[in-house]
Write a structure and sequence with these properties.
CATH architecture of the largest domain: Up-down Bundle
Radius of gyration: 20 Å
Distance between the termini: 53 Å
CATH class of the largest domain: Mainly Alpha
Number of helices: 13
CATH topology of the largest domain: Dehydroquinate synthase-like, alpha domain
Helix content: 40-55%
Shape: globular
Oligomer: single chain
Largest sheet: 7 strands, mixed
Strand order of the largest sheet: 1-2-9-6-5-3-4
Strand content: 15-25%
Number of domains: 2
Length: 361
């Protein structure tokens, strides 16, 4: 078993992120070695369940775990309160108690759903993230943010609950279609823009691929997790520097909502990252050439960099963003490759930024 372990130590409690190959079949041993109660409940969407649910169950049962499970329909459109309620009822029917552990097996939607279910069930039980997509490995499985969407907007009902363990098996990336893999590449590029010029240069020279040697995938994923670790440890509940991880997200979430969630999260973030960088460079906030370099890297990873939606529609969705207050919104703004800052802008200025970044009217 080839693996890297990154220790995440926020104020609420430390945990390991294990990144490697063949880890899904070692899941039971990885949990047992960390003294988890032997009562587990796997949550997966319908796509991932058909691929990996029985393997995860077998690995857990071989290590002595009693295993229950629940499967919900795949897709962002099911990341809502009714689905959450059904999962909670399934956990109760399985007689899961306060010592049990929820296993989030899948991508970002599953991680959000299972994490929030664990946060609510019996006022909070342990959960383990087992991400199966690049996006969930490098971003959403780490940091403890879990939420569902409301009709008004994305991730508006949620909680902070750090996982007790994260297990990322890079072999699961082989079953992703190209679009889902590239979705995760947007977050990889975002992290590089925030904090690692060397990683950015590597991605610009040679695009990340699910067919890469496992050593490269493990190395890139582990580096992304380490970048996120520094933000989570210093600002667990996103009151300050952790907001920088939202680079590209304020416009990206609006694009995602405008698409009716038919556009993948990473594809929407790619558009948002392109737009905020073009706007920042146009306003003199970012180094000249930053936008061209970032757009080239996104293009290399087959990600979109332009928005088809008008400014009025995007600003309408953006005003529902969690980072808004009565006076405006706090934006993560790139200043160059490897550094960014936070700027609070009013809604009229934000509309101008969206127009400048998207070329929309």
């Amino acid at each position: 078993m080839s693996a890297e372990i990154i220790r995440i130590a926020p104020p609420s409690g430390a945990y390991d992120v294990v990144v490697g190959e063949g880890l899904l079949d070692e899941l039971g041993d990885l949990l047992a070695s960390r003294t988890f109660c032997k009562d587990a409940f796997i949550i997966a969407d319908s796509t991932v369940a058909s691929l990996y649910l029985e393997r995860a169950r077998t690995a857990l049962e071989a290590a002595g775990f009693t295993v229950g499970s629940a499967v919900f329909p795949a897709g962002e459109t099911h990341k809502n309160l009714p689905t959450l309620g059904e999962l909670l009822e399934d956990m109760a029917k399985a007689r899961l108690d306060r010592t049990g552990t929820v296993i989030a097996l899948g991508g970002g939607v599953t991680g959000d759903m299972a994490g929030l279910a664990a946060a609510l069930y019996m006022r909070g039980i342990a959960y383990v993230q087992v991400p199966t997509t690049l996006l969930s490995m490098v971003d959403s499985s780490v940091g403890g943010k879990c939420a569902v969407d409301l009709a008004a907007g994305k991730n508006l009902a949620g909680a902070f609950l750090q996982p007790s363990l994260v297990v990322a098996d890079v072999r699961t990336l082989a079953t992703l279609d190209d679009g889902v893999f590239s979705d995760g590449c947007a977050e990889v590029i975002k992290h590089a823009v925030l904090a690692d010029p060397r990683l950015f240069e590597s991605l610009s020279r040679e695009a990340l691929s699910k067919d890469d040697p496992h050593e490269r995938l493990i190395s890139v994923i582990a580096r992304n997790i380490d970048i996120k670790r520094s933000f989570v440890e210093s600002d667990e509940r996103e009151q300050g520097p952790r907001k920088l991880l939202n680079l590209g997200h304020s416009i990206g979430h609006a694009v995602e909502a405008a698409s009716g969630y038919t556009l993948g999260h990473g594809h929407a973030v790619s558009i948002g990252l392109s737009a905020i960088t073009k706007a920042a460079e146009g306003l003199g906030w970012a180094e000249a050439g930053s936008a061209a370099a970032i757009i080239d890297a996104l293009d290399r990873h087959h990600l979109p960099t332009s928005s088809p939606y008008p400014v009025d529609e995007l600003i309408g969705y953006a005003r529902l963003d969690k980072k808004c207050d009565a006076d405006g919104i706090t934006l993560a703004v790139p200043e160059g490759i490897g550094h960014a800052s936070l700027r609070h802008v009013g809604f009229e200025e934000f509309a101008r930024i969206i127009a400048l970044g998207t070329g929309a009217s």
